[in-house]
Amino acid sequence: xxxHNVIIRWSKIATLLFIxxxxxxxxxxxAITQYICYCWAEVFDxxxxxxxAVVFYLGTVGTYVILFSLFKLLSNMGKDTVFDRSNTKLxxxxxxxxxxxxxxxxxxxxxxSGSFILAILALFLALVVQSVRVVFDKAITMKEELDxxx
Length: 150
What we know:
The protein is mainly α. It has helices at 2-27, 29-40, 46-78, 85-109, 114-149.
């Protein structure tokens, strides 16, 4: 039991560090998008730079939703609330937000082609989260059936 709490505690700390990194990314978002446009995408059009900045900031909004949902999920697990419908709802939020981020990255892909790779990664992560959610749903159903037989 203590071993698992240590893992959950470190995972929550890592999640908070990722939130801090996204916050720093938000602060320097314009400089980051300018760097991507000028150095990687070799795009010098101000309209496309503004478009990539919008895509960037929409992506960070989705990232906040994912990270805060993950933090709440880890908090629930720290309270020994694992196979619970609230956790599967959080996993749904995470998965659908990954899909929204993927759509955002596809839009950014028309400005910088590297954004398409990020879209593929986001869709893959959505698939993984949804697969885990299905396993949790099955475990919850089995647990409820066992509770009824006792």
